[in-house]
Amino acid sequence: MNLKGRVAVVTGAAGLLGREHCRALAEAGAHVVATDLDAAACAALAADLGPGHLACAAEITRRADLERLRDAVLGRYDRLDILVNNAAVNDKFESPAAALDLSRFERYPLELWQRALDVNVTGTFLACQVLGSVLAARGAGSIVNIASTYGLVAPDQSLYRRPDGSQAFFKSAAYPTTKAAVLGLTRFLAAYWGGAGVRVNALSPGGVENGQESFFVEAYAQRTPLGRMAHPGDYRGALVFLCSDASAYMTGANLVVDGGWTCW
């Protein structure tokens, strides 16, 4: 699981899990390229990682941005070995009242549905097309697409119900649908680029505790065999495993790390 000298691009690097992914890869020896919309956040993260790492802001739904990212990586390191497609959007509503109303399937806004498809699916597709092609041309490399347990099973809407019985909001169809699509793309690319020496796998994390209301954290923990939500660092080992030679005979797979959430 040594990544010394390898170059890894992580999209969505400034997010909660993105930062952990970057740190895990850097600690394993990789040169990390932190990519996100926020240039300042990327720069701060790269500086925090230490010498040898790079910040490069990009909008993954724009091919031109990804091509500039590719050129920056090759100009700096003259190679690319790892691509972690972590960038994604999830629903955010302006107010609790709006959340309850707009998150209902019958009222869910088309623009939110389209934005999720654009970022979570098309953005991953474009990143693989522009950056993954570099790996295929080299004849080696690892792509890890970050999916979700909600790409495997439907959301349990009771988790979002307050103790008084009122529904805080509904988990929309957009996130599960897009994450299921990421799993399909993962299998396609594993078969397509297998002969080129590029391994393509997915990592499906469970829910991460991050300041949610206590009723949700408690309900999630009760529904999970390990009895808790994930900590942000719980996925470090799995990610490094998928990126390294430790998983050399693994492609087209979905590594589920969810505390047992999907086992019952």
Brief digest:
With 264 residues, the protein is of the alpha/beta class. It has eight helices and seven strands; from the N terminus they run βαβαβαβααβαβααβ. Helix content is 42%, strand content 13%.
Describe the protein in words.
The chain has one domain: 3-Layer(aba) Sandwich (Rossmann fold). 42% of the residues lie in helices and 13% in strands. It has eight helices and seven strands, in the order E-H-E-H-E-H-E-H-H-E-H-E-H-H-E. It has helices at 16-27, 39-49, 63-77, 96-102, 110-138, 174-193, 214-222, 236-243; strands at 7-11, 31-35, 54-55, 82-85, 141-146, 198-205, 254-257. Helix 1 crosses helix 8 (236-243), helix 3 (63-77) packs parallel to helix 5 and helix 5 (110-138) packs parallel to helix 6. The radius of gyration is 18 Å and the shape is globular. The protein starts with 6 loop residues before the first strand and ends in a 7-residue tail after the last strand. The mean pLDDT is 96.
Topology:
Layout (H helix, E strand, L loop, with lengths): L6 E5 L4 H12 L3 E5 L3 H11 L4 E2 L7 H15 L4 E4 L10 H7 L7 H29 L2 E6 L27 H20 L4 E8 L8 H9 L13 H8 L10 E4 L7
Parallel strand pairs: 1-2, 1-4, 2-3, 4-5, 5-6, 6-7
Helix pairs in contact: 1-8, 3-5, 5-6
How far the N terminus sits from the C terminus, by CA atoms, comes to 31 Å
Total beta-strand segments:
7
**What is the percentage of strand-forming residues?**
5-15%
Biggest sheet statistics: 7 strands, parallel
- Succession of helices and strands: EHEHEHEHHEHEHHE
Q: CATH superfamily assignment?
A: NAD(P)-binding Rossmann-like Domain
CATH topology: Rossmann fold
Describe the strand arrangement of the main beta sheet, using strand numbers.
3-2-1-4-5-6-7
Counting helices, strands and paired strands, the structural category is: alpha/beta
How many distinct folded domains? 1
Poorly predicted parts: none
